[in-house]
Amino acid sequence: MNSQPPAGAIHPLEWENVSTSLVITPTGTSPQHAAQLIFSDLEFNESVRAGVTAVTTETSVSLTFDEMFSPDAEEQVLGLSRHLASKAAIIREFAHQGNLVSVEIAGLVETNAKLRLSPAAFSAISALGTSLTFRTLVPEELQEDDPLAWLD
Q1: Were both Cys, which of 21, 52, 75, 83 would link to 64 (CB 3.0–4.6 Å)?
Q2: Cα dihedral sign, 32-34-37-40
Q3: Burial 64-99 (b: 16+ CB within 10 A, else e)
Q4: Edge-to-edge order in the sheet of strand 16-25
Q5: Per-residue CA distances from 146 to 80, 84, 107, 143, 150 (Å)
Q6: What is the dihedral of CA 67, 72, 77, 79, to 10 degrees?
Q7: CA torsion sign, 16 to 22 to 28 to 32?
Q8: Which positions ≥6 away from 7 have C-beta within 8 Å?
Q9: Do residues 52 and 38 lie in contact, with contact meaning Cβ atoms separated by under 8 Å?
Q10: What pLDDT does residue 43 have?
Q11: Which residues of the chain are modeled with pLDDT < 70?
């Protein structure tokens, strides 16, 4: 059986340059302290290291799984969740203490671009006790002078 769409069929656009991150913006402690609590003893073996980046700035800390890890957002979410499973209680407590904690999926999108996630991916995010946010970036050549032009 042929699984290819028929000739001339419209292919749904997918998100490009997708990355999935755990982003923590501490309100009662320093980002360095948050990084030490959550990332200090995580194992970054070779298979995980490719496409995984931990970054600490003056205001936040993040762990990002990008397209080098997998071009698929679903695989990134599941990889991030598996990697942080041992820290889920600490992450939930951090959120409970009023710190901003979120799993963020970011990508380059065009009009009608779709991003599909399975219930398993949502369950994995839920197990971390975080919110889920999406950041959509538009290719520069498609940006409108009027940011509300899409309403027309």
Answers
A1: 21
A2: negative
A3: bbbeebbebbbebbbbbbebbeebeeebeebbeeeb
A4: 52-56, 61-65, 16-25, 100-108, 131-137
A5: 36, 41, 21, 8, 9
A6: -70
A7: negative
A8: none
A9: no
A10: 62
A11: 1-12, 42-49, 140-152
Which residue reads 């963020």 in tokens? Answer: 104
Alpha-carbon 70 to chain mean position: 12
3-state SS string over 68-126?
CCCCCHHHHHHHHHHHHHHHHHHHHHHHHCCCEEEEEEEEECCCCCECCCCHHHHHHHH
Q: Which residue has the tokens 């755990």?
A: 22
Torsions phi, psi for 119 (to 5 deg) = -60, -30
The whole-number pLDDT of residue 109 equals 87
Q: State residue 48's pLDDT score.
A: 54
pTM for this structure? 0.79
Tallying the residues shown for the chain, one arrives at 152
Tell me the helix, strand and coil percentages in the chain, rounded to 5: 35, 25, 40
